Amino acid sequence: MIPTAPPRLPFATLPGGNLDLAGGFQAVLQGWGLSPGLAHALWLPLPMVLVLVAAVVGVLASVWMERKVSAAVQQRIGPEYAGPLGILQPLADGLKLLVKEDVIPARADSLLFTLGPVLVLVPVILSWLIVPFGQNLLISNVGVGIFLWIALSSIQPIGLLMSGYSSNNKYALLGGLRAAAQSISYEVPLALAVLAVVMLSNSLSTVEIVQQQNSAGLLSWNIWRQPVGFLVFWICVIAECERAPFDLPEAEEELVAGYQTEYTGMKFALFYLGSYINLVLSGLLVAVLYLGGWGFPLPVEWLATVLHQPLSSPLVQVVTASVGIVTTVLKAFLLVFFAILLRWTTPRVRIDQLLDFGWKFLLPIALVNLLLTAALKLVFPTIFGG
Amino acid sequence: MSLALSTQLICFLLLSGALLLGALGVVLLPNVVYSAFLLGGVLLSMAGLYLLLNASFVAAAQVLVYVGAVNVLILFAIMLVNKRQPMRPMRVLLLRRLLSVAVCLGLLALLVQVALTTPWALPGPPSIGEAALTRIGEHFFTDYLLPFEVASVLLLMAMIGAIVLARRDVLARDVVTGEPADQALLERQRPPFLPSQGGSSPSAPSPR
Asked: Does residue A93 belong to the interface with chain B, where contact is any CB pair within 8 Å?
């Protein structure tokens, strides 16, 4: 735990040893006779497309996992005919939604009805901008990092309200209002939990938040310094994803399917996609904020030193980068697995319990956690990043 | 023109176009729900303009506060209001409209005058980018401490006022008209569904 000097990291502070994918790609293109500007323009969309593909593949994986885990919880077999172990089932689901007729109810407001799902999905995808899979493996290391995610996720309620209102259906409207109320109530403790982490790492940037956790491997992860913050953040994230036990906006017994009631086909698929992308994103962000991000439980640089490998050699660089990506994804999917298990084993809370829990329990706890973190930071600046 | 510059120009034109059209829509559309959604769009394009000026924290704060909180609140208010009586047709509507147009045009003329007569420093001071966050924090806790704290007191007052107004059992009469307050939506204690046998059993939760 080194508070002031930047800790030595797998591929952070090596002399001239950063994995420069952008530079290499552009050099290859320029070798083919393209101008530097054109090479740069061709490079720009690549990371975005890559992250988009990663997000969609993550959705397919988590949908399959949801089906299999729910089946296991309920002592069923689950999907088994579409591909080995049913791994093609999510693709079949997607294909079904793609070719389904797109119905817009006759009395609905067709413009807002179409715009609603888009407004729900776009901020979630934009938030992947700040998810780091490695020291330089993210689209953009913006300085406001994690704050950008909080801001973007606050746009979502507008899309939910829009689709709830435009469906011209009382269940949809109620579901939209509930979703927005829930999202706003749980955003406050969420932001306070994030603030405590930001205080520890003196930065809003996701890369720096991960860096300050990786000085001693497993032991320096934020979860040990922020156990309460971790729980608050996890609960809030589950509530923001509208998953059981907080899935009131789409409570089947009361509201049919909430704001999604009137949607079919691709528009419904956008909601579906949005909720699962959000789930995977939440898993990634919990990993980044509390579980050391791309850091392996044993620091990779120690392993390299034990194996007498120079940290700047290309092989070690590639291996550490791959280990970083695999570690991030594994941590995220472990959390997604817990979220799925929670969904299929806990009963739904009532709306008053939900709001009481958010405002009267989580908010004071998060505030106390924040104050405690500030006090500890003043008293033990070496451990709490003074 | 380089790629970055042309992208910046295109973004600026798109954002300002969206901002102006959206603002006109907020004022001119008869449907209040459309106006509220368009207001969200206007605030988002404003955040985009801040981003173009390299003020990413201000942009994110704009999205969080104005789009995520204020605009959602406006939408909530519109969707939760249950209007009992239809709106009465206004008298002398044309005169009212003409008057408001005149006032707005006067304001516009004033603003244009100010914009044209102010000696702007061109080019302005260089943007400090990511360091802006630290600078804003320093200002908040030194020379802008009093306005900052007063603003939070104002918000607290507004919150207490909203709670008093929303809890209609606090005030039995309407503050403005003096009529008995509409308590149709008030949450009341319901009588228990089943008569309890021999006092209240601890297992049965008390009805709210």
From this structure: no
How far apart are the C-alpha atoms of A209 and A7, rounded to whole Å? 12
Kindly provide the ipTM of the predicted complex, given to two decimals: 0.78
Residues near A327 by beta carbon (within 8 Å), at least 6 away in sequence:
A294, A295, A296
| Residues of chain A numbered 235-274 and touching chain B (CB < 8 Å) | none
Q: At A296, phi and psi to the nearest 5?
A: -75, 150
Q: Are A340 and A166 in contact (CB under 8 A)?
A: no
Instruction: Kindly tell me the sign of the dihedral angle through the C-alpha atoms of A359, A362, A363, A364.
Output: positive
Cα distance between residue A86 and residue B185, in whole Å: 50
Assess contact for A283 and A333: CB atoms under 8 A.
yes
| pLDDT at residue B201 greater than cutoff 80 | no
The torsion angles phi and psi of B58, rounded to 5 degrees, stand at -65, -40
Distances A249 to A9, A88, A150, A240, B26 between C-alpha atoms, Å? 43, 29, 21, 11, 29
Burial (CB < 10 A; 0-12, 13-18, 19+), residue A309, is middle
Which of A258-267, B21-30, B45-54 is least confident? A258-267
Percent of chain B at pLDDT > 70 equals 75
Q: State the residue for tokens 């804003």.
A: B136
- Single-letter residue type at A382: T
The residue ranking higher by pLDDT, A72 or B88, is A72
Query: Cα(A178)–Cα(A237) distance, rounded to whole angstroms?
Result: 16
| pLDDT class of A232 with cuts at 50, 70, 90 | very high
pTM of the model: 0.81
For B77, name the nearest residue in chain A, comparing CA atoms only.
A177
Q: Which residue has the higher pLDDT, A283 or A170?
A: A283
Rounded (5°) CA angle A109-A115-A117: 110
**CB–CB contact A162 B37 (8 Å):** yes
Name every residue whose Cβ is closer than 8 Å to that of residue B179 and which is 6 or more positions away in sequence.
B173
Does any CB of chain B come closer than 8 Å to the CB of residue A187? yes
Q: How many CB atoms lie within 10 A of CB A67?
A: 18
pLDDT digits (tens, 9 = 90+) for A102-134: 888 888 888 888 888 998 899 998 888 888 887
What pLDDT does residue A132 have?
A: 86
pLDDT tops 80 at residue A288: yes
Per-residue confidence (pLDDT) for residue B206, from 0 to 100: 46
Of the candidates B37, B44, B61, the beta carbon closest to that of A112 is on: B37
Q: Which residue has the tokens 């797998």?
A: A10
Tokens 């009267």 found at: A360
Which residue among B3, B68, B80 places its CB closest to the CB of A155? B68
